[in-house]
């Protein structure tokens, strides 16, 4: 994988992760052989472990869902072990995903494979906005700044306007995201805007300060 020479830093990229023929077979599987949740808009299917946002760990009540046969050859091998969680998402034309960072503390590395139609992804940090065209069959790794300090999202809209002014219609798209558990369960990036570990620390400190203030008030008898 090659790092894209852009801001944010840390986006690694590989074109043609699979062949167009393989992509067509997968799309046929997605369309005709999988049971999707019955809802409109973006829908997801999860494999591997399920993350519990209450305990910020693997949910012990939901058993590991084995990776299906079609998924096996799509697992990146560059992390030295398979990911703990894989999510297949379907985006009908017009669907998107709000700007977010994938929660820092539970997961470390994050990869995404794009299939079907291309779509523009926006990376954002403050006033800085950068569009990245998620072309079909490309594998993207988000690490460093792109993973921790910039949000990413896909606008809900029917067309994308390319840098040369061409208006491109959205069509059916699928993505597969891969997540590797962060063994420590804490992130040390310190980004109080985007990092759940940093925010939890801040919350605890605020709680202490509040308690200390209460104690002072009680001690002084007022
Ligand atoms: O669809 C994609 O390529 C990215 C999805 C995403 O950001 C996520 O699932 O966290
Ligand atoms: Fe994400």
From TrEMBL:
PROSITE patterns: FE2OG_OXY. InterPro entries: AlkB-like (IPR027450), AlkB-like_sf (IPR037151), ALKBH4 (IPR032857), Oxoglu/Fe-dep_dioxygenase_dom (IPR005123). GO terms for biological process: demethylation. Residues 82-182 form the Fe2OG dioxygenase domain. Pfam families: 2OG-FeII_Oxy_2 (PF13532). GO terms for molecular function: demethylase activity; oxidoreductase activity. This is 2OG-Fe(II) oxygenase.
């Amino acid at each position: 994988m090659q790092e894209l020479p852009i801001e944010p830093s840390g986006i690694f990229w590989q074109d043609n992760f699979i062949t167009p023929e393989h992509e067509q077979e997968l799309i046929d599987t997605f369309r005709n052989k999988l049971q999707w949740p019955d809802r409109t808009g973006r829908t997801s299917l999860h494999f591997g472990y399920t993350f519990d946002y209450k305990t910020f760990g693997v949910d012990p009540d939901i058993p590991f869902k084995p990776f299906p046969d079609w998924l096996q050859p799509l697992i990146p091998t560059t992390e030295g072990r398979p990911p703990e969680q894989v999510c297949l998402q379907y985006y009908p034309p017009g669907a998107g995903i709000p700007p977010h960072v994938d929660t820092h503390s539970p997961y470390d590395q994050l990869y995404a494979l794009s299939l079907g139609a291309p779509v523009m992804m926006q990376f954002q940090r403050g006033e800085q906005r950068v569009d990245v065209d998620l072309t079909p069959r490309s594998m993207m790794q988000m690490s460093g700044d792109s993973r921790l300090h910039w949000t990413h999202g896909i606008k809900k809209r029917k067309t994308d306007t390319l840098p040369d002014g061409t208006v491109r219609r959205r069509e059916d798209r699928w993505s597969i995201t891969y997540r590797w558990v962060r063994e420590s369960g804490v992130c040390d990036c310190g980004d109080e805007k985007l990092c759940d570990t940093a925010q939890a620390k801040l919350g605890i400190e605020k709680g202490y300060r509040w308690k200390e203030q209460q104690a002072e008030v009680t001690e002084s008898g007022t």
